[in-house]
């Protein structure tokens, strides 16, 4: 399994403001770059915090790029939400129409919520007791032929993926704004590391929109 993390942060490293609303940090050219990234993967992943804050549909991608890279019959990327307790609203855009949506959940999810989400078409994968065991859940996705994932956020999920040693590549758009705020989400939140910090190797730098895209591989 290949896992690429991509996100847009302000110059001070924030994913959003303390209100946790969706903020346009990047511009048109960067969204086009993300659409190409989406076109190259089997699945797009977000945490339930992002679903509750942004209500993304995770459908848009560069279809021409997908056909070129994956062939004319490649199905669209599936959508995946890490949601231990099945808090995703049944009316969320990530569940509407389009490609399959996997909900990675845990034993702690109330059975009636799991059932309600299955009723609106979600494929549930139960992995972990209290929280989603991301390694186990990704292994189950792999069993379904999902080999390459794009993780779009947010900061809690991204930290857990680094902690579990599951990230292969990281691309970050750094935008021309300061958001600030000690409670505003950053690229990697969670508990944070105090030692054995994951190390990255710089693989590319590109000026785009009013910011810069950094490409890193994880050592
Ligand atoms: N600028 C950008 O590129 C992007 C910005 N954002 C912003 O990020 C913010 C949302 O980020 P954040 O609040 O961190 O939420 P996340 O999207 O990272 O979701 C976090 C939630 O995922 C669930 N989860 C399930 N399993 C795990 C696990 N193993 N590790 C960690 N989390 C797990 C947890 O809820 P539970 O325990 O209930 O399962 C957790 O609270 C919003 O403000 C959004 O706008 C989001 C994406 C991109
Ligand atoms: N790449 C990027 N740049 C920004 O400035 C952003 N605010 C985000 N946010 C994420 O974009 C995704 C939107 O998904 P849909 O277009 O609704 O499919 C979602 O993951 C947001 O959190 N990304």
What order do the helices and strands come in, and which of them pair?
Layout: E1 2-9, H1 28-39, E2 43-47, H2 48-54, H3 63-70, E3 78-82, E4 101-105, H4 111-119, E5 123-126, H5 134-143, E6 148-153, H6 155-163, E7 169-174, E8 200-208, E9 211-218
Parallel strand pairs: 1-6, 1-7, 2-3, 2-6, 3-4, 4-5
Antiparallel strand pairs: 7-9, 8-9
Short description:
The mean pLDDT is 97. By secondary structure, the protein is of the alpha/beta class.
Order of helices and strands: EHEHHEEHEHEHEEE
- Low-pLDDT residue intervals, each spanning 5 or more residues: none
The main pleated sheet reads as: 9 strands, mixed
* Order of strands, widest sheet: 5-4-3-2-6-1-7-9-8
Bound molecules: NADPH dihydro-nicotinamide-adenine-dinucleotide phosphate, ligand LIKH6CAM
- Assign the CATH superfamily: Dihydrofolate Reductase, subunit A
Mean pLDDT: 97
What is the multimeric organization of the chains shown?
A: single chain
Strand content: 25-35%
Number of strands: 9
- Helical residue percent? 25-40%
Radius of gyration: 17 Å
In the CATH hierarchy, the architecture is: 3-Layer(aba) Sandwich
The end-to-end span amounts to: 16 Å
Strand pairing plus helix content: what structural class?
alpha/beta
- Give the overall form: globular
**CATH classification class:** Alpha Beta
Kindly give the count of domains.
1
Task: Look up the CATH topology.
Answer: Dihydrofolate Reductase, subunit A
Q: How many DSSP H or I helices?
A: 6
Subunit structure: Homodimer.
Enzyme class: oxidoreductase
InterPro entries: DHFR-like_dom_sf (IPR024072), Rib_reduct_arc (IPR006401), RibD_C (IPR011549), RibDG_C (IPR002734), Riboflavin_Biosynth_HTPR (IPR050765)
Domain Bacterial bifunctional deaminase-reductase C-terminal: 3-214
